[in-house]
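tool_log.txt
---
The assistant was asked to compare two proteins side by side. It first ran the structure predictor on the initial sequence, then on the second. Raw inputs and outputs are pasted verbatim so the downstream comparison step can read them without reformatting.
(1)
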Amino acid sequence: MSKSDEIRQKILDLVGDYHEAAFVERPFIPGQTAVPVSGRAFDADELSSLVDASLDFWLTTGRYAAKFERELAHYVGTRHALLCNSGSSANLLALTALTSPRLKERRLKAGDEIITVAAGFPTTVNPILQNGLVPVFLDIDIETHNIDTAVLEEAISPATKGIMLAHTLGNPFDLETVTAVAEEHNLWLIEDNCDALGARYNGRLTGSFGHLSTSSFYPAHHITTGEGGAVYTNKPLLKKLVESFRDWGRDCWCPPGVDDTCGIRFRHQLGDLPYGYDHKYIYSHIGYNLKMTDMQAAVGVAQMKKLPRFIAARQRNWGKLRDGLRPFSQYLMLPVPTSNSQPSWFGFLITIRPDAPFNRNTLIQHLQTHKVATRLLFGGNLLRQPAYKNIRHRVVGDLHNTDIAMNQSFWIGVYPALTDEMIAYMIETFTSFFNGCVSSQ
């Protein structure tokens, strides 16, 4: 072992000691300790992995990124996984890849339509608009808060070229219907799997159904790298296109620090460039730089080992909340798993019934006062957001349930760091609300 290896090992041993001293688990005090909706769950392994990568001082994507990509692809069940700097960037890359001229007649062009929903996170819809495409909005099913497929066939026009949908809060959308329609009409399917890593539909992991799918590794998600995301595909051509758009739009596919993978680096003739122009500086797309750093990937590699445990904890916490809040179903619509699915829950979604003797804000304020954090269903109805007021779009049917979600839905946390004590306290806090506010009506 070299001197530097010995020093590295000492540093990593000290990292474990540091974690034990710096991240002491504090006791939960009901009413005083915050109960967040989400957060990072980690131990000394992640810290050690992060420091190990930093000692390499390889500041872009490197050995940890390559390992993380392999493990993600193997886990989800796809041939390829490509890391990037966020889930939002992953969505942008997935859709933008489909605009490449290399897809010939299947290339997405300005004015083409993409079917989606308005009840969700903006960056599922934003890539559609950013590429000059037209979102076609369908309503949601109020029980699952996923796309209502009743009018999916009706929504298809000659301009429709794709479907881009998220699995809402870890609950898969109706993949049987959606994939059948996509296949019948030769439509691209992009799964926004950012909130649903580890969810299953008919026993198969979500993220493996679409032509492309995405993950987010923001701290709120199932595993974290801080900022980070990934794009998945089984198609070698789509993999190459995503990689190109991610890496400045270049034609070259060499990883950082590697040259001449193709063996003809100085023998290309592309565009109007002179023969032999360095392939590392030939650009086939108008792209970005959206790579993940190796230090972020190092955290992801450590997190992957814990993913099954994290998913089980989310499912267990969701089940406890469902059981604990069932007595209040007269006032609350509680979440329902999609048929034939095993969700990997991101949060516990609650909708206030229209005839309830209180409104959402009253309940949320009670929870917030008692240190139980809440979140709305992201943008609600995006068409009512100021940024989307004048966008080109189409609506099929109405967005009645989308508006219900905007006005009456919210969610609370199920993430792995929530203890049994915290879950019990959350249920007690709801109980105190109903014992006070509702019984006084």
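(2)
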Amino acid sequence: MSSRADELREQILELVEEYHAAQFGNGEFRPGETTVRYAGRVFDADELLHLVDSSLDFWLTTGRYAQRFERELARSLGLRHALLCNSGSSANLLALTALTSPRLGDRRLQPGDEVITVAAGFPTTVNPIVLNGLVPVFVDVELPTYNASIEELTAAVGPRTRAIMIAHTLGNPFRADAVVELARRHDLWFVEDNCDGLGSTYKDQLTGTFGDLSTLSFYPAHHITMGEGGSVLTDRPELKVLVESFRDWGRDCWCEPGEDGTCGKRFGWQLGTLPHGYDHKYIFSHVGYNLKVTDMQAAVGLAQLAKIPSFVAARKRNWRILRDGLAPFEEFLVLPEPTPESDPSWFGFIVTVREDAPFTRDELVRHLEERKISTRLLFGGNLTRQPAYENVDFRTVGDLPASDAIMERALWIGVYPGLTEPMLDYVLDEFASFFAGRRA
């Protein structure tokens, strides 16, 4: 780069800091007028600086920022490999699809094999199972943790069961060590959906480090954001290569963009029935996708990565404020509890209206929404009731009563770092206002 270009880049980045201060100054919170969001992006000038710096390279595909982000993300979790992709949903698809590779021999997942998952969750934990011709086995969850019990998971294992794929519900860890033991006992793959749980720990071990593969989401609602983005993580080099292949068109080559001959024999391979010496960059060992990210997205993610400790601390603090503030209303609400021996990095604060409460979940939701307090349901509720799965072959363990209760009576509100104490005080005041006069 010329010295003049360097000077101009420096001037541009100085202006970006000024722009951030002018454009994104904090607005005043006005109760009843300002929306108290359930989630949102939290950023400062550093994210804009990274984004603009990347854009000035005009390297529009994966590049230097993506490579650095992958290294630092893996290091932050104590794992060997992180592979960025374009969403957490794609991360789930890549993680499970990698396990269908013929290179895994007798352990590969094949159509008709069963994968254990939970009924009360988000569809993209389940969809990769369906899309690969596998059979989801739905288990129920328990209140107040909203995670499956080990007893339920154990009861779900059948002669065709080959894998477990479950998420840490709203960042509350399931008993991951027991899931690992169950998987080992039955020779099952374990895919750990950590999209809602970055920074959570179970028995002092970070979630996302228990599974054969784990996933993260970097959608704006999640713990850190790239706008759109996700990652698959693993400690196993042989699985890293498979995920990378499925992410990058299914190719056999592992060269970085713009590089050639990393393997040292680009024209020396013979695979399938291709002629000897066919260019390795155009040999495809899997039926894959293109699910990569741009370097500009990765640049934003890299800036966010440094903020994880403060983001996690804020989520825990906000959750505790809501938990303490709603404790007087347990006659109406089932309040959430962390899984024993866990320290969640909470994604949201969930409550379930008790069956004998003198009001419905929908009445409470309307009260909050009319007062500019955003609410969400626990994703798809009981997924077996969703129209998307009407013609899907699946198996259930029991009648899923807790998942039905969640579908009918649960809601959650935000704890993300963009919420202030005045906002949370307002939320608690509105809960109290709704409950006033409803005691027998």
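---
observation on (2): Residues 53-305 form a domain with the Aspartate Aminotransferase; domain 2 fold (CATH 3.40.640.10). The two ends are 75 Å apart (CA to CA).
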